[in-house]
Amino acid sequence: MQYIVIYLHGFLSSPQSHKAMQTLEFVKSHYPQLTLEIPSLGNYPKQAAATIEQIIAKYPDKKLRFIGSSLGGFLATSMCEKYAGKAVLINPAVRPFELLEGFLGEHVNPYTKETFLLEQKHIAELKALDTPLENINSQYWLLLQTADETLDYRQAEHKYQGHKMEIEQGGDHSFQNFERFLPDIFRFLLQD
Q1: What's the pTM value of the predicted model, to 2 decimals?
Q2: Which of 1-5, 36-40, 176-180 is predicted with the least confidence, judged by mean pLDDT?
Q3: Which sequence ranges form a coiled-coil region, renumbered to this chain (predicted)?
Q4: How far is CA 123 from CA 33, 46, 130, 131, 178, in A?
Q5: What pLDDT is stored for residue 178 in this prediction?
Q6: Burial class (CB in 10 A: 0-12, 13-18, 19+), 120
Q7: Does the structure show a pLDDT above 70 at 73?
Q8: CB-CB contact of 16 with 74 (8 Å)
Q9: pLDDT tens, 98-139?
């Protein structure tokens, strides 16, 4: 198949997250020939971006497609703008460098149990990855829930205006009942 789909998890998450596993199971059942990558993104922005770039480099002849959740949505946007891709963004972080200012210090990833220290230099790495939407060949579909307790959905609504959006009242940051969108997500991603 001509596509590569890369699922990007959020901050303090992993490829074992609920949405990542739902996506993997859906692809196994409905698109067994599709190349799906669900990388374990490092805890630091520059490290996470390098991991994504390494995956992209492995597939020079495939069309890039992304599913990004929260901070993964921010990273997916950065890559889409750089490489002219298509992405579905689930409650994406728009200005994570502001949000994570309040998270400086030591953290433990609940999935990997890895301890890491978030410092000011990592905020600067995030700012360096912030990308305006200027690539006319990039396409986005946003899935937003208004009761997201972590991010203000209106930031994404504003940044991605003009792109396809599904804004649901209520919900939460995890995007409740995500799996019901999987058939439409892949129909969107796997068309030109």
Answers
A1: 0.95
A2: 1-5
A3: none
A4: 38, 10, 11, 15, 29
A5: 95
A6: exposed
A7: yes
A8: no
A9: 988 888 999 998 888 999 999 999 999 999 999 999 998 899
Q: Which of 149, 136, 127, 112 is nearest to 74 (CA)?
A: 127
Q: How confident is the model at residue 176 (pLDDT cuts 50, 70, 90)?
A: very high
Tokens read off for 153: 């959905």
Mean pLDDT of 148-158: 94
Residue 1: pLDDT over 70:
no
Q: Strand (E) positions, the chain?
A: 3-8, 35-37, 63-69, 86-90, 105-108, 115-118, 139-145, 164-168
CATH of the domain at 158: 3.40.50.1820
The Cα 146–Cα 180 span in angstroms is 18
Structure tokens at 123: 């905020």
Q: What is the dihedral of CA 171, 173, 174, 179, to 10 degrees?
A: 50
Whether the predicted pLDDT of 81 surpasses 70 = yes
Q: What domain count does the chain have?
A: 1
How is residue 81 written in tokens?
A: 């703008």
What are 110-118's contacts with CB under 8 Å, separation 24+?
110/12, 111/13, 111/14, 111/16, 111/17, 112/14, 112/40, 114/43, 116/43, 116/44, 118/43, 118/44
- Which of 97, 45, 77 is closest to 160 using CA atoms? 77
Provide the residue range defining the domain that includes 20. 3-189
